[in-house]
Amino acid sequence: MLPGRGRNGRAAGLARILGTRTAWTAAGDGEFFCPGCGGDRNYQRLTGQRRFTLLGVPVLPRGETGPVVECAACRRHFGTDVLDHPTTTRFSAMLRDAVHTVALAVLAAGGAGSRTALESAVLAVRAAGFDDCTEEQLAALVEALEADTGRITGEPCGAGLAIELHEALDPLTPHLATVGRESILLQGARIALADGPYTPAERDVLATVGAALTICSDDVTRLLAAAARTPS
């Protein structure tokens, strides 16, 4: 048999004659976290129309494909679920807001009048990205939070405060590894412990934080106990 005349040769020859081609149409754009590049990039959302080709010329429609997300930098295509992942910028803002809200909630449980608790909260909030945070600002925000939720300092975590925590933590939690979720809880624990052992109200707030972070109650208890044993 002559070279190129076998089954593989015939298949290759047929592929050069008949094939399919996809024509892409842009249906939107924006910024996303590109898994291929490993960073924030611009994207186009594309829909495609597949066609049979004869000698490279489109002749018959074969149906639609997509939509897909095309990275403007690496040109790779991804499923649209990639847009569910926040950009690096958005993720940083979500994390910063989460730490800030947890700090306020713990202070509202009874630490707003303690200088050491306020100092600990300021350190956590500044580390999260609010560089200009001050003790006076946090104390004023705690008063505003209590007025908005109808909560009195030292009371257990009420519905209003629980809603505030869930609004800040629920969007972030799916994008955090276990260690990241535990870190946020432990930051709240350190604020609570800055002026002495946990109060019942502080434990209640931290339990709500743990639930919003989808940390099981047994692990919340374990983490809070470990934080209490760790010297400040």
Automatic annotation (TrEMBL):
Domain Co-chaperone DjlA N-terminal, first and last residues per copy: 121-222
InterPro entries: DjlA_N, TerB-like
Domain of life: Bacteria
Pfam families given in the database record: TerB
Name by which UniProt lists this protein: TerB family tellurite resistance protein
Organism: Streptomyces dubilierae
